[in-house]
Automatic annotation (TrEMBL):
Alphabetical list of Gene3D superfamilies matching this protein: 1.10.238.160
Protein name: AlpA family transcriptional regulator
Length: 63
């Protein structure tokens, strides 16, 4: 089954990250890189974004 791809606004909604945070983290190797889906369009494989989310530490909110 083919992987679904998410455009940047969807990635921002799912992760809660801003556009600049996504690209800054990509530059540091801390966020998955998108794949080209057209001449001027990129998208992130949903599985890569979900895997990244699963690796993130979970905040308990306790101090």
């Amino acid at each position: 089954m083919p992987d679904t791809h998410l455009r940047r606004p969807a990635v921002q909604a799912v992760t809660g990250l801003s556009r600049s945070s996504i690209y800054e983290m990509m530059d540091k190797g801390e966020f998955p890189r998108p794949v080209r889906i057209g001449k001027r369009a990129v998208a992130w494989p949903q599985s890569a974004v979900e895997a990244w989310l699963a690796e993130r530490p979970v905040s308990t909110g306790a101090k």
